[in-house]
Design a protein that fits this description.
Oligomer: single chain
Helix content: over 70%
Radius of gyration: 13 Å
Strand content: under 5%
Number of strands: 0
Largest sheet: none
Number of domains: 1
Length: 49
């Protein structure tokens, strides 16, 4: 397995755990999605510059 695939799998596991933790705590998961979408867009913009 390549390093990139391992990093992606780790990010997905962290994302999943973050969602589960938020749901267990009875919080709104919209903020998690907003944060991750914003982070992804910012990374894409950095690569474009």
């Amino acid at each position: 397995m390549s390093k990139t695939n391992i990093q992606r799998r780790s990010l997905m596991n962290n994302f999943t755990l973050e969602i589960l933790k938020t749901l267990v705590e009875g919080k709104d998961i919209k903020e998690i999605f907003r944060f991750h979408v914003e982070s992804a867009v910012n990374q894409l913009l950095q690569y474009e510059l």
